[in-house]
Write a structure and sequence with these properties.
This is WD40 repeat-like protein. The chain has a domain of about 140 residues: YVTN repeat-like/Quinoprotein amine dehydrogenase (Methylamine Dehydrogenase, Chain H, 7 Propeller), CATH 2.130.10. By secondary structure, the chain is mainly β. A hairpin with a 4-residue loop joins strand 21 and strand 22. The protein is about 0% helix and about 50% strand. The chain is globular, with a radius of gyration of 22 Å.
Length: about 300
């Protein structure tokens, strides 16, 4: 589809995987126990919530099934089966939707933000609107749940708001940016957050005390900011460039990507493996970079994922 959209994080919890029939080989009486092949992993249930420029909110429910197969004497790569079905679609705002966030760990809340300056809260389990939050004087540019108990928003008005999900009271209004806030990233500990904006600065916020603690001039407008999964690095994207910083905001790498970047995300394939940086760009590909806190180890592209027909 050529429709532009903002997509919330996928999550598990509100739908349980369907039970699988036990397909393991049964022992044959009198002939000993037959070998038991490995069980197929259970399918992963998830939801995708997307907001569009046409004011519509879309909901999809799906599963990912992984199965091992073999050819001859050598095992082939695991086979992935994806299933996605629509569960709802309706007009959610008076203007186009600019941000979507779902509460983590299977939480029931969904938050949507719009150019109409409003934040709406939805109950995903019962599928109805809970109410609206009107604390910004500009389009909503970011929504995120640092935890199931709090919602963090940002806006073109240059402020961030921290809400308590128990009663949706605004606990803090964080001021510091002189212009639009473009992106916010909460540290994995949920104690601090970084934000970048049109004023060409990056700011650090203490979410426990609700105040700004540091700021730094970038010399260029940061469009996206992301923490690494282990919280030791942060990445700031601007046009086709990504700057990678340590937690002390020391620049360790600058990545010059071959085309305009639209999204970045850290990814860790395994618990004991190194983190990777995924970069989605105008070239219709997702590039996979190695990433390290060692300045001597330059980021390199180890894979390119193709599949999109548009950016």
């Amino acid at each position: 589809s050529s429709e532009k959209s903002k997509t919330a994080k996928q999550f598990n919890g509100s739908s349980k995987p369907e039970a699988l029939v036990d397909t393991r080989t049964k022992p044959d009486k009198g002939k000993g126990k037959a070998p038991v092949p490995p069980e197929e992993p259970l399918p992963t249930a998830y939801k995708v919530i997307a907001g569009s420029y046409e004011k519509l909110l879309y909901g999809f429910e799906g599963t990912i099934s992984v199965s091992e197969s073999s050819e001859g004497t050598s095992k082939s790569e695991p086979s992935l089966s994806f299933n996605l079905k629509p569960i709802f679609m309706f007009s959610a705002h008076a203007s186009h939707i600019t941000a979507v966030a779902a509460s983590p760990q299977g939480g029931k809340w969904l938050a949507t933000g719009s150019a109409d300056e409003n934040i709406k809260i939805w109950d995903l389990r019962r599928r109805f609107e809970v109410g609206g939050l009107q604390h910004h004087n500009g389009s909503i540019t970011h929504l995120g749940f640092p935890s199931r108990s709090h919602l963090l928003s940002a806006s073109e008005d240059g402020t961030l708001c921290l809400f308590r999900t128990r009663d949706w009271v605004v606990l803090r209004v964080l001021k510091g940016h002189k212009a639009r806030v473009n992106s916010v990233a909460v540290h994995p500990t949920s104690k601090v957050a970084l934000s970048v904006g049109k004023d060409r600065t990056v700011r650090m916020w203490d979410l426990m005390r609700g105040r700004g603690v540091a700021s730094m001039k970038l010399g260029k407008e940061g469009e996206l900011i992301r923490w690494s999964i282990d919280g030791t690095l942060s990445a700031i994207q601007s046009l086709a460039t990504i700057d990678v910083y340590t937690i002390d905001m020391l620049l360790v790498h600058t990545i010059a990507h071959p085309s305009r970047i639209h999204d970045i995300k850290f990814y860790k394939p395994s618990d004991d493996g190194a983190e990777l940086l995924l970069v989605g760009a105008e070239d219709r590909m997702v590039s996979v970079y190695t990433i390290s806190s060692d300045p001597e180890k330059e980021p390199t592209i180890i894979a390119r994922l193709k599949g999109h027909v548009n950016r």
